[in-house]
Amino acid sequence: MRVVIVCGALALLVSFASHASNDPVQANPNTGANFNRYSYANNNPYRFTDPDGRLSRGTGFDDKQWKKFDRAQQSAAGSLEKSAGKINNALATGKGLAGVERAFEKNFGAGSATPANMAQVAGDMSTMASALRDTSATAIPANGMTATAMTAAYGNMTPDVLAGVPTTGPTQVIVNLDHSQFNNRSVLAWGVGHETGHAALGYKDQQVGGISAYKFGNPQQQQIFQTLPSPQRLINPDHLMDQAR
Fold first, then answer.
1. Residue 15: pLDDT above 60?
2. Can you tell me the distance from the alpha carbon of 43 to that of 24, in angstroms, rounded to the nearest whole number?
3. Average pLDDT, the chain
4. What is this structure's pTM?
5. Backbone angles phi, psi at 234, to 5 degrees
């Protein structure tokens, strides 16, 4: 099994609209999606809301699919919050600090468990969790697509991509509803959290020799994940999620 996660963010957008101006999200020239320039709330304003003509909860999901996705992002947020809280509590009180430091260095490398690094990681994980919990009008939308539609619309995505962001256009996350791991809450939650590392923090997938460090990637990517230098681990989305999960 190979799971590919492309840089981006996953978050919930709940919003409201009451005006009739052009939708700032323009039509997709590849798929024709969003062709109606006065289309609000997925053409269903009784069910969805949309404050400024942008995307509502995330286009393309049916209720069952959205429930799965939302459970995954809440699971990721909970794990991030719990891990960040454990680090912050150990730093503040000294209680269990030695054990927290050992776990930290197992993930981020020998000598990495300095107070500054630990505080940074705890802050980063809290920021990622906040992005996942965000239900404001400025939240980043996640949009579900079939593998066929996704690959036709976005050249940087292939059928084995579980979640990713387009390289151009408004910030959004495309979720591959056909992916075999979409129904795997643990893997989907990992992907959701990974994406917030990109969106909320601006962190890139760290590389060595042009090969990205992915815990669930191909053998080469897994090897890079395991041997990545400590300074890069501290800003690598997969290592942040490894600390949380």
1. no
2. 15
3. 80
4. 0.75
5. -65, -20
User: Rounded to an integer, what distance in angstroms lies between the CA atom of residue 42 and that of residue 142?
Assistant: 13
Helices (H), the chain: 63-93, 97-108, 115-133, 147-153, 185-199, 219-227, 230-233, 237-244
As a CATH number, domain 4-13+59-244 is: 3.40.390.10
Report helix, strand or coil for 186.
Answer: helix
Q: Are 2 and 160 in contact (CB under 8 A)?
A: yes
Nearest 10 degrees: CA dihedral of 228, 100, 238, 131? -140
pLDDT, tens only, 147-173: 999 999 998 889 998 988 777 887 778
Residue 131: name the closest of 68, 52, 74 by CA. Answer: 74
Q: Are 131 and 196 in contact (CB under 8 A)?
A: yes
